[in-house]
Write a structure and sequence with these properties.
Layout lengths: L1 E5 L12 H9 L14 H7 E10 L5 H14 L7 H17 L6 E8 L21
Antiparallel strand pairs: 1-3, 2-3
Length: 136
């Protein structure tokens, strides 16, 4: 199983390379499913995941200050004035949201996960995507 993982909270740190994180990612593919990410342990992950390889890491570690400067530069290039707070703040929010919608700019990594059982892939389809609260 190969996943492309995008971080939306890059202040949480680098991409974990643990079996527990990998299994939590997969558990989150079934919202409200029989296994919740929080119920998993190192022991259960060790019994379910054979290996985890992380590759093709992009934009990590994330430089938030540089990203913010880039958004501000874009707004100035569009002729917006930071002194016009309402217009600036609205445009900044839109541009910042667009930043996080662009997979080429956000922190991401490829996870190759080998499992002991196909049961963990029951609800995962090619090209499917889901939000996850997986951590370390």
């Amino acid at each position: 199983m190969t996943l492309r993982v995008q971080a939306v909270h890059p202040d949480a740190g680098l991409f974990p390379r643990t079996k527990l994180f990998a299994l939590r990612l997969l558990a989150d593919s079934v919202p409200g499913g029989p296994v919740t990410a929080d119920s998993l342990t190192e022991e259960s992950a060790g019994g379910a995941v054979t290996s985890v390889e992380v590759s093709d890491v992009r934009n990590s570690p994330f430089d938030e200050a540089a990203a913010l400067r880039g958004v501000e530069r874009t707004l100035r290039d569009r002729g917006l004035d930071p002194g016009d707070r309402d217009t600036w703040d609205r445009a900044f929010g839109e541009e910042w949201a667009a930043f996080w919608d662009d997979p080429a700019r956000v922190p991401s990594a490829r996870y190759a996960i080998r499992l002991t059982s196909p049961k963990w892939l029951r609800n995962v389809r090619p090209s499917s995507g889901w939000d996850s609260t997986a951590y370390g």
